[in-house]
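User: tokens in, sequence out, please.
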């Protein structure tokens, strides 16, 4: 299982297609789980979780990668790697 971040246009837009996706490298899993308050990937596997602006900024710092701030971002778990 891998952590996956997705981004969509903010609510109110007719376009509901994914505008951003990121398969998070496994080396960041434990730090992200702690940051989000989950004990394991299985705990996160119940769906996608909306991210606050503060969480987005914290995650970006952990993974050392900019994340889009103009999208509604969600985090979840997928089986295997995403392309």
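Assistant: Sequence out:
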């Amino acid at each position: 299982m891998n952590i996956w971040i997705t981004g969509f246009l903010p609510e109110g837009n007719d376009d509901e297609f994914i505008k951003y996706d990121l398969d998070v490298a496994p080396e960041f899993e434990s730090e992200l789980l702690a940051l989000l308050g989950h004990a394991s990937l299985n705990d996160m596997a119940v769906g996608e979780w909306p991210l606050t602006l503060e969480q987005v900024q914290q995650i970006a710092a952990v993974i050392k990668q900019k994340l889009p701030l103009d999208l509604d971002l969600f985090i979840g778990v997928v089986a295997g790697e995403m392309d």
